[in-house]
Specification:
There is one protein chain. This protein has about 35 residues and is mainly α. Helix content is about 95%, strand content about 0%. It is rod-shaped and about 50 Å long.
């Protein structure tokens, strides 16, 4: 159970980080374009 929890937690954190990075890039592009 612990291993599964760690794996799921890592996946969730990684996805959140990726989405945040993509969001920052998108916002920067939008600001520069605007």
């Amino acid at each position: 159970p612990d291993e599964m929890t760690l794996m799921s937690g890592t996946v969730v954190i990684s996805t959140l980080v990726v989405h945040s990075l993509l969001g920052l890039r998108a916002s920067k592009r939008a600001r520069s374009a605007a």
